[in-house]
Design a protein that fits this description.
With 378 residues, the chain is an alpha/beta fold. It is built from eleven helices and 19 strands.
Length: 378
């Protein structure tokens, strides 16, 4: 509770995503410390956090980023001020020249993609370092049987194609350093024959080192030990959620309360479908400040979004007192994998974007209007 004591929510428009600078800097300090102590390169994954007006803060700690598309790569080049480490499940002839222009590293998802586009890399003077995504067939669903992500060990011989300088795997999601340790054992078992002969190994994302209870010391020791075994390798990690984990909230307002067969639903001026899609897609139930899971005997509500999609709701939460129209509801930890995934389905207004600065001032990054909705289909 003390952490929020200086935030005056009455100054914040509703709905609004609010990132807290002090909390962001705390995460960045920890990530930079791991990077320096372990001697690895940790870069920001835009797929989780691409709020580019905050990049000047990020660049004070971490100067590089990873992209999954030509637009993310261009954003890295223009707003992070450095070329991207780029990976996509598939590139096209139309997009690849832009990928080359804005990238320092390009990872290919398949051997066919590499052979198809490497001539363009070579024609560009081999300025970009090429890598291949490998599939350790372990842990997370990108590695499940039938996955479209990465090349399995049985498809590779004893030598990588000429031009491949690095390997890339991604097996984690909000995971621990012990999950990484087990993954690395599988990587060495299935692909260890290549590790002494490449320049870099990208360990992907999902390293939630800023979560409370994460064993940072174990992570650092693990990375140092791996580097000792393969001193030729630059080790790269590209978490997204770890950067923005618990750095801000989505402020909303109750606009109506309806009841059906004894179930009360508080309808807010925001939408799960439009503004918190991961809650429905993953799915997970977000925390609401000053609310708990349902408790018998306490005022309990579903929370409904303001789109016309029947499934745009979640529940149930209990409160210390009944909700009223006009009450503010604050959804915690709504900066990563929210803003990057929002949409304007139904023409629902997009929440504003703001920073609560380290000097306890509200800095409005962006508000949205009708033209933003209309121009998406212009």
């Amino acid at each position: 509770i003390l952490r929020y004591s200086m935030i005056d929510i009455n100054k914040i428009p509703s709905p609004c995503y609010v990132m807290e600078e002090k909390l962001l800097r705390n995460n960045l300090s920890l990530i930079k410390s791991v990077k320096e102590r372990a001697g690895v390169n940790i870069i920001l994954a835009f797929k989780a956090f691409a709020l580019w007006k905050a990049f000047p803060i990020v660049r004070e700690y971490i100067p590089f980023s990873t992209a999954s598309s030509k637009f993310e790569a261009q954003l890295a080049f223009e707003e992070m001020g450095s070329p991207a480490h780029t990976y996509s499940p598939a590139y096209t002839e139309a997009d690849f020249p832009l990928i080359l222009r804005y990238s320092s590293h390009v990872t290919f998802n398949s051997l066919s993609q590499f052979h198809r586009f490497y001539p363009m890399v070579r024609a560009d003077g081999n300025r970009v370092s090429c890598g291949l995504r490998i599939n350790p067939e372990y842990l997370y669903n990108p590695c499940a049987p039938g996955s479209r992500m990465g090349v399995t060990g049985d498809l590779l011989g004893d030598k990588l194609p000429e031009g491949i300088e690095g390997l890339h795997f991604h097996t984690l999601c909000e995971s621990t350093s012990y999950d990484l340790e087990r993954t690395l054992a599988e990587v060495e078992r299935r692909f260890g024959r290549f590790l002494p002969h490449v320049k870099w190994l990208n360990m992907g994302g999902g390293h939630l080192m800023t979560r409370k209870g994460y064993d940072v010391e174990h992570l650092i020791a693990l990375l140092k030990g791996f580097k000792e075994r393969y001193p030729n390798l630059e080790l790269i990690m590209e978490p997204g959620s770890a950067f923005a984990w618990q750095t801000g909230f989505l402020l909303t307002t109750v606009v109506d309360i309806v009841e059906n067969h004894g179930i009360k639903t508080a309808i807010i001026d925001a939408s799960f479908t439009c503004h918190m899609p991961d809650c429905l897609e993953m799915p997970y139930k977000p925390a609401i400040r000053f609310a708990t899971d349902a408790v018998e005997g306490k005022p309990t509500y579903r929370i409904g979004g303001n789109s016309c999609l029947s499934g745009d709701y979640m529940g149930d939460w209990s409160f210390d007192k009944p909700l009223e129209i006009g009450d503010k509801l604050i959804f915690e930890d709504m900066i990563h994998y929210t803003i990057v995934k929002t949409n304007m389905f139904n023409g629902i207004p997009h929440p504003s974007l703001a920073l609560w600065s380290k000097d306890d001032q509200l800095v409005m990054y962006r508000t949205f209007g009708y033209e933003d909705y209309k121009n998406r289909m212009d």
